[in-house]
Each structure stands twice: as structure tokens, then as C-alpha cells.
From TrEMBL:
GO MF term list: DNA binding; DNA-binding transcription factor activity
Entry-linked InterPro entries: Tscrpt_reg_HTH_GntR, WH-like_DNA-bd_sf, WH_DNA-bd_sf
Domain HTH gntR-type residue range list: 11-79
Pfam families: GntR (PF00392)
Originating organism: Paraglaciecola arctica BSs20135
Record-linked SMART domains: HTH_GNTR
CDD domains to which the protein is assigned, alphabetical: WHTH_GntR (cd07377)
SUPFAM superfamilies xrefs: Winged helix' DNA-binding domain (SSF46785)
Name of the gene this protein is made from: ytrA
Alphabetic keyword roster: DNA-binding, Transcription, Transcription regulation
Entry-linked PROSITE patterns: HTH_GNTR (PS50949)
Name this protein carries in UniProt: GntR family transcriptional regulator
Length: 124
């Protein structure tokens, strides 16, 4: 698997990493159970901050494309190929759109929604 980062691309580096790893899985360039480089190793290889790679790995793990096995390393998830098809952003957008329409139908203003949303996010 070869990852190429384009620093001039407006897409954030962590997103480029996520997409390229998902493409490698979908294209069967890497298989379920295959090991991935450590965060530190991949960051060094790509000359990027290790926090950037860690963020990409965290998102891929959330989406069950990769799995961490503690000190043994990070591996391609057994169901990775199927899970690459899931678009969490599209799902979240759809959920928010439905919710906002319901709130507007109930007469809640955009300002009230923003304030309430921020309060809920901040645990108030």
C-alpha cells in the first residue's frame, strides 16, 4: 500500500489518509488481518505529525476499517471492506436535516436550535 499526501490539497491530511486506506481496503490492496504501520512509523514515512496519523487511525477504528490490538499493533478489520461503504458524514447530515426540519415544523427558531445545540454539546 502506497500513501501519497498532497500538502497543497485543500482536503486535510488526516482525511487524505482515511480515504487512501479505505481505497486500499476496497481495492483489495490490503486484506483483513494485514498489519498497518504504527502511528509513529507512518508519520515518519509521510513526514507528517503523528497526531495527524493518530486522528486518521482513530476515525478508521471508529468506522471498523481497522482495529487496534494493543501492543501487538493495528490491523485491517475482518469486516473492513463492507465497512468502507459506510459514509458516517452522509448519515449524520441526514439525521441533522430530519431533526432540523422537525424543529422548524414545531416553530423552533434557528437561533434557539444553535443555543440549545451548543448547550447540549457543552453538557449544560
Amino acid at each position: 500500500m502506497q500513501i501519497i499526501i498532497d500538502i497543497d490539497d485543500p482536503v486535510p491530511i488526516f482525511s487524505q489518509l482515511v480515504e487512501q486506506i479505505k481505497q486500499a481496503v476496497a481495492g483489495e490492496k490490503i486484506q483483513p488481518g494485514d498489519p498497518l504501520p504504527s502511528i509513529r512509523q507512518l508519520a515518519n514515512d509521510l513526514d507528517v505529525n503523528s497526531k495527524t496519523v493518530a486522528k486518521a487511525y482513530k476515525l478508521l477504528e471508529r468506522d471498523a476499517v481497522i482495529q487496534s490490538r494493543g501492543y501487538r499493533g493495528t490491523f485491517v478489520h475482518p469486516e473492513a471492506k463492507d465497512n468502507c461503504q459506510i459514509d458516517i458524514k452522509a448519515w449524520a447530515t441526514s439525521q441533522f436535516e430530519e431533526f432540523i426540519l422537525a424543529m422548524r415544523d414545531a416553530g423552533v427558531t434557528d437561533s434557539e436550535m444553535r443555543i440549545t445545540f451548543n448547550n447540549v454539546l457543552n453538557g449544560k
